[in-house]
Design goal:
- The structure is a single chain.
- By secondary structure, the protein is mainly β.
- Helices cover 7% and strands 44% of the residues.
- The chain has two helices and 28 strands.
- The strands form seven sheets. Strands 9, 10, 11, 12 and 13 form a five-stranded antiparallel β-sheet that branches. A four-stranded antiparallel β-sheet has the order 1-28-27-26. A four-stranded antiparallel β-sheet has the order 5-6-7-8, with no helix packed on it.
- Strand 26 and strand 27 form a beta hairpin.
- The longest helix is centred in the C-terminal third of the chain and has 21 residues.
- The protein is globular and about 50 Å long.
């Protein structure tokens, strides 16, 4: 199918950087697959037929019991450690280690029954904890000490907010997500050293923002309404301490946009989608954007870089430091986009090996 050497792809040690790739090799992961996260060793996790799965490399399917027997949802992976949730309709945040061991992360000690882990770093796992009714969940975290998780701890919310979700965490410990108010709905919120940080306290727009990703340099991405947009329209945003919220707009002719994930670099790559509207027939298009240290950048249509006119990418849902991107197509296929220079080098290495074999003869 694709002539890719797993050893090279898995052991790439240098971070992807420089100019954005102008072409991606497309790996079709199959129908009803969805990419949640890509580790820095290029292991891909997500779902297959709505059950947790390791999607790439395919040899991972035979390394042990299927992930679906361990987790209901696989949401994040760091250094091979996968976090997500186990069980329905009362999920419990769960950690899975490469040695096959599993840890129930538990919930808060206030009678809470449920918990879900949404994201992780080497030192923190973040998510939500609450009663079986998910609407009552509050943002929470688990601290990792030498790989061992501690008890669930609640993240504080400003008085006007009742519940929320922690959706992302940076290597430096900044946590971001959503805080919910009964009167105004959701609003992007971050936590620094355990204290809540409203990303746009002066906004006069209706709530409806969400902080989806954050870097160690405290650059945040997500989606939000802006004073320049109609009340029900949201645009992808970046946020920095010095510049605040910045409207990144949409693709030409589109109405809404969102960024779901971002790499942990000084000038990170973020991915998401841009939409022509909210109706069922409206077109969703996967996007990427290289952000400056000030959070500026221009959304680009990822379909322009795949040479696959037969495949329309609707959403880009994950990205790692090598520039590998997880996306989702109009026909419900999860796909992996690998920068063409990685594939080209792999082929060049294979050719060199062939030459060596000839010389040996």
């Amino acid at each position: 199918m694709y002539r890719l050497t797993l050893a090279f792809l898995l052991l790439t040690s240098t971070a992807w950087a420089g100019a954005l790739p102008q072409h991606y090799q497309v790996i079709d992961l199959g129908v009803d697959t969805y990419v949640s996260a890509i580790d820095d060793d290029n292991t891909v996790i997500g779902s297959l037929n709505w059950r947790a799965a390791r999607l790439w490399p395919t040899r991972a399917y035979v390394d042990g019991p299927p992930l679906s027997s361990i987790l209901t949802a696989a949401m994040a992976i760091t250094d091979g450690i996968i976090v997500g949730s186990r069980g329905m309709p009362t999920p419990r945040a769960t950690l899975w280690r490469p040695d096959g061991s599993r840890v129930d992360l538990g919930s808060l000690g206030d009678g809470s029954l449920t918990s879900v882990a949404w994201a992780s770093s080497r030192t923190l796992i973040v998510g939500e904890c609450g009663a079986p009714d998910a609407a009552n969940a509050v943002p929470c975290f688990w601290r990792l000490t030498r790989g061992q998780p501690g008890p669930a701890q609640r993240l504080p919310l400003p008085p006007e907010f009742w519940y929320g979700q922690a959706l992302s965490v940076s290597a430096s410990g900044m946590i971001c997500g959503i805080a919910w108010s009964p009167s105004s709905g959701g609003q992007a919120m971050c936590w620094v050293d355990g204290r809540p940080l409203d990303l746009d306290p002066s906004t006069s727009q209706p709530a409806g923002s969400a902080a989806m990703g954050v870097t160690r340099h405290a650059l945040v991405v997500g989606t939000a309404p802006f004073p320049t947009t109609p009340w029900d329209v949201k645009h992808a945003f970046s946020w920095t301490r010095h510049r605040g919220l910045r409207d990144l707009g949409t693709l030409p002719g589109h109405v809404h946009s969102v960024l779901y994930a971002v790499t942990d670099e000084a000038r990170p790559l973020a991915v998401g989608m841009s939409v022509t509207g909210w109706q069922e027939a409206d077109v969703q298009t996967a996007v990427r954007v290289r952000l400056s240290t000030q959070g500026t950048g221009t959304l680009e249509d990822l379909n322009a870089f795949t040479a696959r006119p037969d495949m329309h990418l609707e959403q880009a849902t994950a990205v790692n430091r090598h520039g590998w991107i997880g996306a989702y197509t109009r026909t419900s296929h999860g796909v992996l986009l690998i920068p063409a220079d990685v594939v080209a080098k792999d082929h060049a290495d294979d050719d060199d090996d062939d030459d060596d074999d000839d010389n040996d003869e």
